[in-house]
Amino acid sequence: MDTKMQNLDLIDLISERHVQLRSITEKLWNNNSTIYISNSEWFIIARIYEKKQPTISYVSKHVDISRQATHKFIKQLEEKGLVEIKNVENNKKEKCIQLTSLGEECYEKNESLKATLEEKIAAKIGAEQLSTLKEILKADWGL
User: For residue 136, what pLDDT band results from cuts at 50, 70 and 90?
Assistant: First the structure.
């Protein structure tokens, strides 16, 4: 076991692993693509992908990023050709956002990279252990 992890409590262990995995997935993507996408941008892309055409305010509320920063990231994603911003029908104030075909393609390629990383983890700790870990993380912790 990594000596750095030895004395950490549950919260810090989860946090350390999260940071480690996000760093690995970001590097995997950026080493295999000409389009740089940050972890914050991936969070936003994921919300758009799962909801199809969410409003910008929906995305802002469902990512742990300030509203101002979310708007900045969405603008960057638009400049990269990954999202389109559109007016919402019958609502002049609200705008919706959707992935372009390039944005969907990037999201799906990134999911494949993450699946490959998950396979490596399963090979190291065992498929059953990985499955148990995922079930524990999905469970209602009553918090």
Answer: very high
Say what angle helices 101-125 and 10-31 make with each other, to 10 degrees: 130
Residue 1 belongs to some domain of the structure: no
* Residue 29 within a domain: yes
2 conformational bin, left if phi > 0, alpha if psi -120 to 50, beta if neither: beta
End-to-end CA distance of the chain: 29
- pLDDT-wise least confident of 2-6, 51-55, 112-116, 117-121: 2-6
Is the per-residue pLDDT at 62 higher than 70? Answer: yes
pLDDT digits (tens, 9 = 90+) for 82-105: 999 988 777 778 888 999 999 999
How many domains does the chain fold into? 1
Domain that holds residue 23: 11-138
CATH number at residue 124: 1.10.10.10
**How is residue 22 written in tokens?**
């996000």
